[in-house]
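so the lab meeting is tmrw and i was supposed to have these ready like two days ago... anyway. pasting both below. for each one the top line is the aa sequence and the line under it is the structure tokens. i havent really looked at them closely yet so no promises
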Amino acid sequence: MTWKLAFPNRALDRRCLTYQPNPVPFAAFEARGKHMLGLWVIGLVGAAALVAVGALAWVLLHDRFGPKQTELVPSRTAQLLGQRGRVTEPIDAVAGRGRVVVGGDDWAARAEQPLAEGAEVIVDGADGIVLHVSNWKPPTGS
């Protein structure tokens, strides 16, 4: 509440004071209300731009600084390539499936030719957790 002197040249008494509301706070409020939408738009556009720049930076830099394929943990079957094992369940000629023990673990196996139980095999490849094996022949001396 603001009191202004109605007659500034006269002596100060209660009759000379009149109440006049100060228009400045209301004017500031109205101006702020008109421009608040603009501030919201600027804030939202700024936030969207920040998200877009962050996403673009991640896409561009992820391949350069992200994990390399060689750094990933190799699968257990990849470690068995070239190792020898023994057939524990015959690999039949029709289905081409059986079981082998390689490195002390029992694995499902597939082969192109039938292999009898007890035959020694070598791991040629893998398809998931199924090993591709072939008959192992010991090297002959020359």
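ok protien two:
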Amino acid sequence: MKVAFIAKMSDKLLEHMIEPIQHIGEVEEIGIFRTAPISGNKIKWMVIPALFRKVFFLAQLYRVFQVLLHAREYDVLIGCFQIPHGMMAWLAGKLYGIPVIQTVISEIDKKSVTRFLAMEVVMKSEACTVMGPICKDKLIKRGYANPIEVIQLSNHFSGLSSRELPKKYDLVAVGNFVNEKDYPWMVEVLVEVKKAVPDFKIAIRAGGDTRRKFPEMIRSNGLSENIELLGYLTEEELLEVYMSSKVYFLTSWTEGLTTALVEAMFCGLPAIVTEVGNLPWLVRDGLEGRVVPHGNTQKMADAVIETLSDDKAQAKYKENTALRMLEVKDEFKTECIAKSWERLFKQISKKRN
């Protein structure tokens, strides 16, 4: 069996997604249609010449050409993020009669033209994966009748035993400086937090082009003494940052189930997050932390202030987090995720036959 991924993901996320499939004996090849090179067991990267990779438009055009040329060599096509990757998978699937699995990684019910197109692609797929039961229920309510599996990204932090380190940071946030993470709103919230907790500390580890704009935003809002921007961290260094923090903080306006949140909670951190995607499945309000509607600045600030000011609440959230991650840890283990993919492949095969 040969499967192909059409994706634009970081090396880390793509490797976590592919790893369980590499463990499936029946899968002999995993084709990767993306701009950046990647290698590994069973992986075949569809080469895009360096000259084309230098120009974004040319790279994407060449990738479409590669998909249309080589997709027929595979038994299953997997689209990761529907715009444009899922659309490429859908088009190739229609052309060659190949079943398509759409991986729904972000939230599905935000209203926009791109989200409408994304949902159309998902609804026409032979199967799909989601990152939690909330998104699964939403798809079923929309009338999706094909096989759905809740499939997480494998997480190597799932086998950790968290250890106590001196707490350097009250809060920690991890994620690229992209629109979805809404760092400008995070700054608004932290301005309000500082009025009540003047000496709070937050570590922010992120990448992306907009990082160059963020230091000025921090300075202009008087948060230079409160925010520490961290550069690139190895997995071991990131682990130490988690262990040196009290609470994980996330202000996204849309999410599926962010890997960083899962990592932080496996390290024993309770979390304060927005009420989007599958976040309320993992973090239950008042149990493993706080869940607040996105955009309500004062309510989010109050949640942070109350948590940082109440040691007993922190201890309760921390204890509940340890129990919660014990409950769900199998969902993030490579061998369990591999079984979910196997089940999905078998359902597709059975349906075709």
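from a quick look at the 2nd one: The domain at 157-329 is CATH 3.40.50.2000 (Rossmann fold). Residues 271 and 289 are 5 Å apart (CA to CA). will dig more after coffe
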